[in-house]
Every structure is written in structure tokens, then in C-alpha cells.
């Protein structure tokens, strides 16, 4: 019987072909053709760098195999193969099946270990709809409004853009994203691929019970889609794909305590979480704590409205890195200042952690969690892996 090994695969049914994983892989193990994005089993070293950058979670698929699926096999997938039954003895009847089963279990566990295990939706989250619209069959939306969120004299142009879907179904949940297809073609003359944006409004609409949603978009210099979206005018038509995202979701359980950590436009999904809880629970309970980093108040999206949210609903810590005359402060620094409150959350099995925004903050936030957990006798990596396994730890950084 050939030795079983683990294999990294990509779910072709969920992958949106954004190629972020391929661009992230530093050893060239990921490639694509016109149909699928695939992982070369001869090259992949399970470094896990591609796992957190995938916007849909389609990257986080693993099988234990006796014979690896070849690139050709994977290009032919229209759906992922089931995990094959490894308990069959096959040609070698003398194999110690118990030892063999243990080896398989260990390989499967290891496959999900990496960055702390396979991302999971909170147990109580509602079931998300995904991939309802794609580039071949996009949804048409109409722009209802486009408002600047940052000060006119600030260096960041961040927009609140509202899209109306009219009678077209667009079922979304807090934490999901949609894709926007910029008009025109890329350098190769092909239509642009959709760019993903987190939805910043709750499931029942930017305006309750209207079929609309909002996005929080920062204009990036030379950004094809961000400039297109930031320049949209009321009444313009927009091509939309999605919704996407099946794990970075709000728990339905109203008693779940949420620790939200974000920078800049990474606050988008947390606006959706806050509005959902405000609409369903009212202002006097919420159980949410947020650490929100920006360069200055004029640069912090929703600064004015956020100051009006009752602290009982959302306890906010707004942290600024570039206030003239004041020391630079990042979210991870403020977490240390508030370490008692953070420790209290870490020790509570009802706590869910969400991190969204700049990729660079992850390292600092991890360090703060490590120090704060150690002070209360908890090993952070173990806790983080447990929380991830229970669908209570979520990271979306770019
Ligand atoms: P930004 O304005 O460039 O930065 C926000 C704040 O983060 C600034 O105060 C910045 O400080 C600080 N910062 C920089 N490096 C940091 C570090 N290592 N640790 C902690 N804080 C750090 O942010 P932005 O341009 O809005 O970007 C937000 C990011 O979120 C983008 O990359 C966007 O793609 C991503 N995003 C993700 C999602 C999602 O995951 N669903 C949704 C929306 C946006 P200094 O500049 O002073 O150093």
C-alpha cells in the first residue's frame, strides 16, 4: 500500500478566480488556466501563506491521498473529490490498520493546523448565500448615493457608496463581500475581473427593508476599480458579482461577545455588525468592543456617526497614528493599555474575535494577544487554534 500524504486543493465551486493566492505564493506552487486555479503537489510546501489572503475560503481544502491529484486532474475538477476512504487495505492485507488509521487522522489534523486550523463560520451564524452572480451573469445595481467619509483636506478619499438592487434578489449577511466589475478591459484586452469589497450595511439593507447595501471604498492611486467606484454618480449602473464569504460572519447568538480589531476601511464589516445588533438588540446591549486604527480623526471612516453609537452597544477605542504632537499609536498598543478588558474577553468562551484591515497589523496584534493571554496563564496559540476550530476567530487582512 503506498504511503498516504496530505494534498492542498482549491474548491473550484467557490473560487472566484481573483488569483490572489497565486500572487501570494512565493514558490510558484499555484497556477491557473481558463477554468481552474490549482496547486502543484510537487511544489507546495504547506507554508500556508495563501490561506489568509483568499477572500472566499476556497483555498482552505485538504485531502489525504495515496496518489496526489495531478495538475491535469485538478484542471478537470468541476467540484472537489470527496475524501477517499483510506481504511481499505488494498493490496497489502498485512498492514496494521490501526496504525494506518492513526497516521491518516494525524495527517488530516496536520492539514488543518497551519495557521491555526480551517476557518469556520460561528456555529450560530445564518447560512450565507454565495456565488449567486458571476462575471458571466452579473447583477445590475443602481447607485443610490456616494458620500465622502473622510475630511476633504485629509490624504485619504474614503467613500460610502450605496447600491440599490431593485427587484433583483441580493441576499447578504454581515461580514460578506460583493464583487464590482469595472467597465472596460485590462492590458490584454480581456474584461476586468471583479474586485471585492466588504459590505458595510446589515442584511436588511442600508435602509431597513430596502433592497440596498453599502460599501466603504478608499480611492487608491491608479486603482482601476477603486477610482471607478469612488467616482460613481447617483443613478449610474454597476455590474455586481457575489455575494462571497462563508466564514467571517456575525454569530446569530445575541449573547456572543465580539472583539473587533480594524484599521481604515477594514471597519466596513464592523459597521454592518454594529447596525445589525443595534436593529435587533437595541442600543442598551451589544457586547461589542472595537479597537479601530486610523491616521487621524479626519481619516477615520464614520468618525462622526461612531462617536454617537452608545458605548453599551459598542465600546470603541479609536486609535490614531499621526496626530501632530502626539505619539504614534496602533491598535495593538491600545490593546496593551486596555489589557484587563482584553484578558476578560479572552477568558470568556462566549467571545468571538474579528480582525480586519491592513495585513501588517496582524503581527503586532498577535504579539499583544500573546502577552495579554500569558498574563492570565493562557497560551495564546492554543487558545487561538481552539477559537478558530470553534468558529470564534476570524481574520481578513490585505
Ligand atoms: P490606512 O489608512 O493605510 O491605515 C490605517 C491605520 O493603520 C493607520 O493609522 C496606519 O498607521 C495603521 N497601521 C499601519 N501599519 C500598521 C501596523 N503594522 N499595525 C497596526 N496599524 C498599522 O488603512 P487603509 O488604507 O484604509 O487600509 C485598510 C486595509 O484594509 C486595506 O489594505 C484594505 O484592502 C483592507 N480591507 C480589508 C477588508 C476585508 O478584509 N474585508 C475590507 C476593507 C478593507 P500609519 O499609516 O501611520 O503607519
Key features of this structure:
alpha/beta, Alpha-Beta Plaits, 15 strands, 23% strand, Elongation Factor Tu (Ef-tu), domain 3, 5-stranded parallel beta sheet, 6-stranded antiparallel beta sheet, globular
Q: Would you write up a description of this structure?
A:
With 398 residues, the protein is α/β, with parallel strands linked by helices. The chain has three domains: 5-112, Alpha-Beta Plaits (2-Layer Sandwich), CATH 3.30.70.20; 139-244, Beta Barrel (Elongation Factor Tu (Ef-tu), domain 3); 257-397, Rossmann fold (3-Layer(aba) Sandwich), CATH 3.40.50. It has ten helices and 15 strands. It has a six-stranded antiparallel sheet with strand order 8-7-10-5-6-9, with helices on one face. Strands 13-12-11-14-15 form a five-stranded parallel sheet, with helices on both faces. Helix 7 runs parallel beside helix 9 and helix 8 (339-346) crosses helix 9. The relative contact order is 0.12. Residues 91-95 have low confidence and may be disordered. The structure holds NADP nicotinamide-adenine-dinucleotide phosphate. NADP nicotinamide-adenine-dinucleotide phosphate (NAP) is lined by residues 156, 198, 218, 263-266, 268-269, 293-295, 321-322, 330-332, 356-358, 360-361, 364, 396-398.
Amino acid at each position: 500500500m503506498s504511503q498516504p500524504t496530505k494534498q492542498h486543493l482549491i474548491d473550484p465551486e467557490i473560487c472566484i478566480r481573483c488569483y490572489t493566492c497565486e500572487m501570494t505564493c512565493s514558490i510558484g506552487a499555484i497556477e491557473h488556466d481558463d477554468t481552474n486555479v490549482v496547486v502543484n503537489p510537487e511544489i507546495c510546501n504547506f507554508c500556508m501563506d495563501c490561506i489568509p489572503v483568499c477572500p472566499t475560503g476556497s483555498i482552505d481544502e485538504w485531502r489525504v491521498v495515496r496518489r496526489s491529484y495531478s495538475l491535469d486532474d485538478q484542471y478537470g475538477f468541476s467540484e472537489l473529490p470527496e475524501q477517499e476512504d483510506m481504511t481499505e487495505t488494498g493490496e497489502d492485507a498485512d498492514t496494521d490498520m490501526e496504525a494506518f488509521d492513526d497516521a491518516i487522522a494525524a495527517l488530516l489534523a496536520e492539514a488543518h493546523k497551519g495557521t491555526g486550523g480551517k476557518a469556520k463560520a460561528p456555529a450560530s451564524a445564518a447560512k450565507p448565500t454565495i456565488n449567486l452572480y458571476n462575471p458571466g451573469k452579473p447583477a445590475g445595481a443602481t447607485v443610490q448615493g456616494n458620500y465622502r467619509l473622510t475630511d476633504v483636506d485629509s490624504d485619504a478619499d474614503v467613500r460610502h457608496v450605496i447600491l440599490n438592487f431593485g427587484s433583483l434578489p441580493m441576499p447578504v449577511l454581515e461580514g460578506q463581500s460583493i464583487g464590482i466589475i469595472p467597465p472596460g478591459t485590462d492590458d490584454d484586452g480581456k474584461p476586468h475581473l471583479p474586485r471585492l469589497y466588504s459590505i458595510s450595511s446589515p442584511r436588511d439593507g442600508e435602509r431597513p427593508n430596502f433592497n440596498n447595501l453599502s460599501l466603504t471604498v478608499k480611492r487608491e492611486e491608479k486603482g482601476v476599480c477603486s477610482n471607478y467606484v469612488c467616482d460613481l454618480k447617483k443613478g449610474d449602473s454597476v455590474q455586481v458579482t457575489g455575494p462571497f464569504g462563508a466564514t467571517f460572519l456575525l454569530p446569530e447568538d445575541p449573547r456572543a461577545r465580539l472583539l473587533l480589531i480594524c484599521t481604515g476601511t477594514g471597519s466596513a464589516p464592523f459597521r454592518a455588525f454594529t447596525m445589525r445588533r443595534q436593529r435587533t438588540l437595541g442600543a442598551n446591549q451589544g457586547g461589542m468592543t472595537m479597537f479601530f486604527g486610523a491616521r487621524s480623526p479626519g481619516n477615520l471612516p464614520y468618525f462622526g456617526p461612531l462617536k454617537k453609537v452608545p458605548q453599551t452597544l459598542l465600546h470603541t477605542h479609536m486609535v490614531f497614528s499621526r496626530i501632530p504632537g502626539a505619539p504614534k499609536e496602533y491598535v495593538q498598543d491600545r490593546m496593551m493599555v486596555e489589557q484587563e478588558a482584553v484578558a476578560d474577553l479572552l477568558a470568556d468562551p462566549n467571545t468571538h474575535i474579528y480582525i480586519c484591515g491592513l495585513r501588517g497589523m496582524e503581527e503586532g496584534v498577535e504579539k499583544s494577544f500573546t502577552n495579554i493571554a500569558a498574563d492570565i496563564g493562557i497560551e495564546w496559540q492554543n487558545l487561538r487554534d481552539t477559537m478558530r476550530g470553534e468558529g470564534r476567530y476570524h481574520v481578513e487582512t490585505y
